[in-house]
Amino acid sequence: MSQPVHKHDVFQAIADPTRREVLKLLSEKDLPISEITSHFPMSRTAIAKHLRILSEAELVSGQKKGREKIYRLHPEPLIELRRFYEQFWSNKLSILKYMVENEEEK
Amino acid sequence: MSQPVHKHDVFQAIADPTRREVLKLLSEKDLPISEITSHFPMSRTAIAKHLRILSEAELVSGQKKGREKIYRLHPEPLIELRRFYEQFWSNKLSILKYMVENEEEK
DNA sequence: TTGACATGAAACCAAATGGTTTTATATACT
DNA sequence: AGTATATAAAACCATTTGGTTTCATGTCAA
What we know:
homodimer, alpha+beta, Arc Repressor Mutant, subunit A, 3-stranded antiparallel sheet, 3 strands, DNA-binding
């Protein structure tokens, strides 16, 4: 019975370069769809779809303001990205260690 | 003229849950395809395809050893994940702060 | 050398992805 | 009231994705 709360997860959401760019944009400032679209070589409709996917992953939310819909970044789910990353690189020391160990094999 | 050196990048590579699991497996131990396959409810061919994608992203490499092909993890490209992550969460303090603030909601 | 095992490669398929165009609806402006 | 603006929603489409099955090739072992 467990509901499929989110169709898209964070990993899928950031798989697309356009969506990563959108997140970057929104990290500076809340923006309406049309403004976001102006930064990309594609239709507003395409951007709206990307925003929906980001929204399903709870990385952004949109609030209607007059006739505009203002989107805002919510970076919290990206923490899952960090948890994943740290399965492999738990700290900077381990990275250094790895690099040293493999120095000669190159 | 710039060649598309890699068909798949890290972000695409880790978008699939099976591939993330494969990376996790390989983080413990180098493994041949058949052994990897035994951990998943799908065919060896399917796993081989996932390995190719991971390989294109340079997250794994495979070396023939007798009739087996042993795969090994190369976590280096995951550093890009970290760079992306830190665009939004620049330091551990902000993460800690967030986690503490949301402790009770679990 | 024959058979079992491990992988590779190709053809095929349904569903998802990432885009388009068209049409509709709600809001703001004059 | 009528027009322009901002978004939404739907139909459509080509390509990619994630799987399958089938067949071929190389290697080990008896």
